[in-house]
């Protein structure tokens, strides 16, 4: 395997995923941006969660909103459920790994908040359980997924499904879409000069 050719092929696969996503994710993105705007305007918050690379995405996106993305200004209410090792280990140890996000949703989610689950397969049980909990509490169960959307279909509204079966390509689109979401929210709720 020639690494340079391999990298070139990865770029091509990425570009194909971008092109396919451009045609399909727009409507759900608009719905997600409107839901997040409404929630933040009403004193609500956005709660991100996912496993592995998606855990990193959750933390990354929460930081953009709480701290800054492109403009300085007021803090926007967001958090990631992937960061508190005491909660994560106690919940896994005493209950089940499947409960690590749902338990935090039960503790923290208020009606009108947006719970944004990130799962490339759409089938991670801990993500699904948290989305169900969010719905039961009057929150908005939103999703970023891939493949065929998995079990997030029918559970999430809105649900953004990246049209790819390759986990890495799906994740690359998730962070692009997540950055775009932060940008829209910042332009609306933290307008200012980009620095
Ligand atoms: O980052 C990667 C692969 O690129 C992995 O860490 C990946 O996120 C993990 O295998 C996750 O457990 C996959 O879960 P999900 O996206 O299917 O919900
Ligand atoms: Zn990864």
UniProtKB/TrEMBL annotation:
<comment type="function">
    <text>Catalyzes the isomerization of sedoheptulose 7-phosphate in D-glycero-D-manno-heptose 7-phosphate.</text>
</comment>
<keyword id="KW-0862">Zinc</keyword>
<keyword id="KW-0119">Carbohydrate metabolism</keyword>
<feature type="binding site">
    <location>
        <position position="171"/>
    </location>
    <ligand>
        <name>substrate</name>
    </ligand>
</feature>
<dbReference type="Pfam" id="PF13580">
    <property type="entry name" value="SIS_2"/>
</dbReference>
<feature type="binding site">
    <location>
        <begin position="119"/>
        <end position="121"/>
    </location>
    <ligand>
        <name>substrate</name>
    </ligand>
</feature>
<feature type="binding site">
    <location>
        <position position="179"/>
    </location>
    <ligand>
        <name>Zn(2+)</name>
    </ligand>
</feature>
<dbReference type="InterPro" id="IPR050099">
    <property type="entry name" value="SIS_GmhA/DiaA_subfam"/>
</dbReference>
<comment type="subunit">
    <text>Homotetramer.</text>
</comment>
<dbReference type="InterPro" id="IPR035461">
    <property type="entry name" value="GmhA/DiaA"/>
</dbReference>
<feature type="binding site">
    <location>
        <position position="64"/>
    </location>
    <ligand>
        <name>Zn(2+)</name>
    </ligand>
</feature>
<feature type="binding site">
    <location>
        <position position="64"/>
    </location>
    <ligand>
        <name>substrate</name>
    </ligand>
</feature>
<feature type="binding site">
    <location>
        <position position="171"/>
    </location>
    <ligand>
        <name>Zn(2+)</name>
    </ligand>
</feature>
<keyword id="KW-0413">Isomerase</keyword>
<protein>
    <recommendedName>
        <fullName>Phosphoheptose isomerase</fullName>
        <ecNumber>5.3.1.28</ecNumber>
    </recommendedName>
</protein>
<keyword id="KW-0479">Metal-binding</keyword>
<feature type="binding site">
    <location>
        <position position="124"/>
    </location>
    <ligand>
        <name>substrate</name>
    </ligand>
</feature>
<keyword id="KW-0963">Cytoplasm</keyword>
<comment type="similarity">
    <text>Belongs to the SIS family. GmhA subfamily.</text>
</comment>
<feature type="domain" description="SIS">
    <location>
        <begin position="36"/>
        <end position="191"/>
    </location>
</feature>
<dbReference type="InterPro" id="IPR001347">
    <property type="entry name" value="SIS_dom"/>
</dbReference>
<dbReference type="InterPro" id="IPR004515">
    <property type="entry name" value="Phosphoheptose_Isoase"/>
</dbReference>
<dbReference type="GO" id="GO:0016853">
    <property type="term" value="F:isomerase activity"/>
</dbReference>
<feature type="binding site">
    <location>
        <begin position="93"/>
        <end position="94"/>
    </location>
    <ligand>
        <name>substrate</name>
    </ligand>
</feature>
<dbReference type="InterPro" id="IPR046348">
    <property type="entry name" value="SIS_dom_sf"/>
</dbReference>
<feature type="binding site">
    <location>
        <begin position="51"/>
        <end position="53"/>
    </location>
    <ligand>
        <name>substrate</name>
    </ligand>
</feature>
<comment type="pathway">
    <text>Carbohydrate biosynthesis; D-glycero-D-manno-heptose 7-phosphate biosynthesis; D-glycero-alpha-D-manno-heptose 7-phosphate and D-glycero-beta-D-manno-heptose 7-phosphate from sedoheptulose 7-phosphate: step 1/1.</text>
</comment>
<feature type="binding site">
    <location>
        <position position="60"/>
    </location>
    <ligand>
        <name>Zn(2+)</name>
    </ligand>
</feature>
């Amino acid at each position: 395997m020639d690494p340079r050719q391999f990298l070139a092929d990865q770029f091509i696969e990425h570009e194909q995923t971008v092109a396919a996503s451009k045609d399909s994710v727009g409507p759900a993105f608009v719905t997600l941006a409107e839901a997040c705007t409404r929630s933040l305007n009403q004193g609500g918050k956005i709660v991100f969660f996912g496993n592995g690379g998606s855990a990193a995405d959750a933390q990354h996106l929460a930081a953009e909103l709480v701290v800054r993305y492109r403009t300085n200004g007021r803090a926007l209410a967001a958090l990631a459920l992937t960061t508190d090792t005491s909660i994560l280990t106690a919940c896994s140890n005493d209950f089940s790994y499947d409960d690590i996000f749902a338990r935090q949703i039960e503790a923290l989610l208020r009606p009108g908040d947006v719970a944004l689950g990130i799962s490339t397969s759409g089938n991670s049980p801990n993500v699904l359980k948290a989305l169900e909990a969010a719905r039961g509490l009057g929150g908005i169960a939103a999703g970023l997924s891939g493949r065929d959307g998995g079990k997030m279909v029918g559970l999430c509204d809105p649900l953004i499904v990246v049209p790819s079966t390759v986990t890495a390509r799906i994740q690359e689109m998730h962070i692009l879409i997540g950055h775009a979401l932060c940008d829209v929210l910042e332009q609306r709720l933290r307008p200012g000069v980009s620095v």
